[in-house]
Amino acid sequence: MTSRCPALEHAAGAALCRVEDIPDGGSLTAEMGAQPVVLLRRGQTVWGYVNRCPHFSVTLNAADGAVLTYEAQVLMCAHHSALFRFEDGLCIEGPCQGAALDPQPLRVDAGRVYAADSNLKID
Q1: Side-chain half-sphere of 103: how many Cα atoms within 13 Å?
Q2: pLDDT one-digit tens code per residue, 56-85
Q3: Which helix H or strand E contains 38, and what residues bound it?
């Protein structure tokens, strides 16, 4: 289950999205600066990773833009079927087993998701 980040202002320090914009157990694609990222959510916990498979440095999403997740536990690269854990981005199955996605530190404040180095909030 994947969504695209809603049209929020993307000025420096602006929220990437609301926690609730990310499907529980699913993913949402967004941009952090010029960097494409995948946001994952389980309950109120949110993780962010660069949208790039370590196998061949291709995006994780399919042609329709979806980044697939399975049972709120792993995301799957649409190109190689590699499976990555939500918690640490580690590939647990597939051609890049043992490699990991590049994490993008996040912070959640008042139900909104920000890049960890962002100090500003929008209300």
Answers
A1: 12
A2: 889 999 878 889 999 999 999 999 899 999
A3: strand 35-42
Say if residues 50 and 56 touch (Cβ distance below 8 Å): no
| Distance set, CA 56 to CA 51, 52, 77, 96 (Å) | 12, 8, 11, 9
Distances (CA, A) of 102 to 49, 53, 57: 5, 9, 11
Q: Which helix (H) or strand (E) holds 107?
A: strand 106-109
Q: How far apart are CA 49 and CA 16, in angstroms?
A: 13
CB 113 within 8 A of CB 39: yes
Which pTM value belongs to this model?
0.84
Residues 6+ apart with CB under 8 A from 45: none
